C-alpha cells in the first residue's frame, strides 16, 4: 500500500520526497533532537545525511518494503518539512514500529500529538492492525507525553544506546481496542 496523505487540523502529513532533504538537513542537524535518538543515527550529522537518508528510505519504499514515511508540513505554510513520522507495521514488533521527530522551533505546540493521532488512525482504521510497538529514550519526557496522550501503554524497558549517553529505552504498545475506545 502506498503512503497516503493525511491531514489534521494544523498539519499535512505527506509522503516523503527527495525534495524534502534540504529542509530535513536544516532541521534535523540539531543536537537537541539527535541526543534523544538511537546511536545508529550519525553524529555529528554529515552534510549529506538527509539526502542519504531520504534516498535510502525511498529506495526501500520503491522496493516494496512495508514502510510508510510522512513529512509534517504546516497547513497554510510554505510547504517545508518540519518533522516526520516513520511507520513500519511488522508482525512481531520487536523493534518499535513508529518513530518521529519534530523541528525544535515547533516543540510544545501539540503538533506531534496531532500527527501521531492521524498516523494511529491510519494504522488501525486503514491497515486494520491490532497493535504496534513504539520506543523512546527513557529520558525523553516529550516523547513519553505524546505516547501517553495517544493511547500507548508502557510495557517495560529495553537496552538501546542513545547519543545522549543513556542506554535504557521505554517500550510501549499501542492497541487498536484502546485507541478506538480512548481516541484523542
Keywords:
alpha+beta, Aminopeptidase, five-stranded antiparallel beta sheet, three-stranded antiparallel beta sheet, 32% helix, globular
CATH architecture of the domain at 6-130: 3-Layer(aba) Sandwich
Number of helices: 6
Strand order of the largest sheet: 1-2-3-4-5
What order do the helices and strands follow? EEHHHEEEHEHEEH
Give the helix level as a range of percent: 25-40%
N-end to C-end Cα span: 26 Å
CATH hierarchy, class of the domain at 6-130 = Alpha Beta
Q: Percent of residues in beta strands? A: 25-35%
Give me the CATH fold name of the domain at 6-130: Aminopeptidase
Largest sheet, described in full?
5 strands, antiparallel
Any idea what the radius of gyration is? 15 Å
Unreliable stretches (pLDDT < 50, length at least 5) are: none
Task: Give structural notes.
The protein is an alpha+beta fold and 184 residues long. The protein has a domain at 6-130: 3-Layer(aba) Sandwich (Aminopeptidase), CATH 3.40.630. 32% of the residues lie in helices and 26% in strands. The protein is built from 6 helices and 8 strands, in the order E-E-H-H-H-E-E-E-H-E-H-E-E-H. The strands form 2 sheets. A 5-stranded antiparallel sheet has the order 1-2-3-4-5, with helices on both faces. Strands 6-8-7 form a 3-stranded antiparallel sheet. A hairpin with an 8-residue loop joins strand 3 and strand 4. Helix 1 packs across helix 3 (49-62). The chain is globular, with a radius of gyration of 15 Å.
Amino acid at each position: 500500500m502506498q503512503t497516503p496523505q493525511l491531514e489534521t487540523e494544523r498539519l499535512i502529513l505527506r509522503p516523503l520526497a527527495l525534495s524534502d532533504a534540504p529542509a530535513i538537513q536544516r532541521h534535523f542537524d540539531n543536537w537537541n533532537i539527535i541526543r534523544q535518538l538511537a546511536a545508529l543515527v550519525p553524529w555529528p550529522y554529515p552534510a549529506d545525511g538527509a539526502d542519504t537518508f531520504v534516498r535510502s528510505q525511498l529506495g526501500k519504499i520503491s522496493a516494496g518494503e512495508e514502510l510508510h514515511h510522512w513529512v509534517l508540513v504546516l497547513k497554510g505554510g510554505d510547504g517545508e518539512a518540519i518533522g516526520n513520522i516513520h511507520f513500519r507495521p511488522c508482525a512481531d514488533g520487536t523493534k518499535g514500529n513508529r518513530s518521529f521527530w519534530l523541528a525544535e522551533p515547533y516543540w510544545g505546540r501539540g503538533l506531534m500529538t496531532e500527527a501521531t493521532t492521524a498516523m494511529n488512525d491510519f494504522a488501525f482504521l486503514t491497515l486494520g492492525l491490532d497493535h504496534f510497538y513504539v520506543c523512546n529514550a527513557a529520558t525523553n519526557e516529550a516523547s513519553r507525553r505524546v505516547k501517553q496522550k495517544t493511547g500507548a501503554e508502557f510495557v517495560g524497558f529495553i537496552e538501546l544506546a542513545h547519543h545522549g549517553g543513556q542506554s535504557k529505552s521505554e517500550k510501549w504498545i499501542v492497541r487498536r481496542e484502546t485507541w478506538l475506545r480512548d481516541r484523542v
